[in-house]
Amino acid sequence: MMDTIENASNDPSDPAENPSENYGIESDDAPETFPRSYVEKLRTEAKEQRVKASRADYLATEVRRLAIREATRGLLADPSVLSWSDEFEGEDGLPDHDALRAAAEALADAKPWLARPRGDVGQGRHSTGDDAPSLSALLRG
């Protein structure tokens, strides 16, 4: 019986002795699947694509922010209260100015405290030149 235990542990096909065969792990002696230069080229290309994608995301965000600012000009005191929604995107993928303007008007109607103040805000000169005090006006009472 001791013979079978010793023979079993010395068997090269035993998974306990050669775990790399079971899990697909290659040894250092195995040839490379792809040449190193090819892998480095792929990594460089992938990095460039990630940078381009990041830049495109940033530019899309800026275009949306500027479109909201332009569409809400004169309607909202702070354009950042109107957040981006996919319904503001036109068929061509660009921001739809009319949809943004309509949303800003609806927001200003629903929440007037977000609207930009219009008209007289109580500052500046309100009287005409005829209301200047004079001695005769003071005596007339």
Put the structure in a nutshell.
It contains 5 helices and no strands. The chain is mainly α and 141 residues long. The protein has a domain at 33-116.
Describe this structure in words.
- The protein is mainly α and about 140 residues long.
- The chain has helices at about 1-10, 20-25, 35-70, 95-110, 135-140.
- It has a domain at about 35-115.
- The longest helix is centred in the middle third of the chain and has 36 residues, at about 35-70.
- It is rod-shaped.
- The N and C termini lie far apart (about 130 Å).
Tags for this model:
mainly alpha, 141 residues
Secondary structure: helix percent: 40-55%
SS strand fraction: under 5%
Structural class comes to mainly alpha
* H/E element order: HHHHH
Number of helices: 5
SS elements, strand count = 0
Biggest sheet record:
none
- Overall spatial form: rod-shaped
Mean pLDDT, all residues: 80
N/C terminus separation? 131 Å
Computed over alpha carbons, the radius of gyration is 38 Å
Spans of at least 5 consecutive residues whose pLDDT stays below 50 are none
Biased composition (Polar residues): 1-12
Region (Disordered): 1-35, 111-141
Topology:
Layout: H1 2-9, H2 19-23, H3 36-71, H4 97-110, H5 135-140
